[in-house]
What we know:
The protein is α+β, with helices and mostly antiparallel strands. 22% of the residues lie in helices and 29% in strands. One of its GO terms (molecular function) is endonuclease activity.
Amino acid sequence: MNIQVPTIRTADDFLRAFEGLDGKREFVRGKVVDLMINVSRNHAKLTTALTVLLASGLDPDRYEVGAADFGVRTPDGVRFPDVYVDGTGGDGRDLVAHAPAFVAEILSPSSMARDFGEKVRDYTALPSLLHYLVLSQDEPRVWLWARGEDGAFGSPEMIVGREESVTLQGFGLALPLADLYRGIA
Length: 185
């Protein structure tokens, strides 16, 4: 049996072609990229903890918080970050965030180069983005890119240790690493 795959040239083509299908993919620089669908327990715990902390700390009339299965359109395609914060006001049938203000990726051995390389370029190019956060899944260590008052993103700040907090200036919110990494050695 021959299965016909539609021609995918744009982010819109990608979103229509793969809506509702099994598996996890991104569309990056004109190519469909298969992603890891099985994650470690630490990865799952961090995703949940970060989502809960953001949802409990942000105004639900201004922001929507979600994880993994909702897209963020970048200048070069469509990404599916581990956690995102979007401005409220989108349509319930949207397949991508309309004003992403925060995205986070949790490191895995297979994603490290992308998370610190091309994803930094893709996410920080979004005009609405305030913060990009990368989290180690093995220890309380995070890297935060934040939009400065001049509108530009500088070098990442590395924050290490259970006693530290990640300050998200754009939201007026601090996330204690002890809360994020609870139950992770």
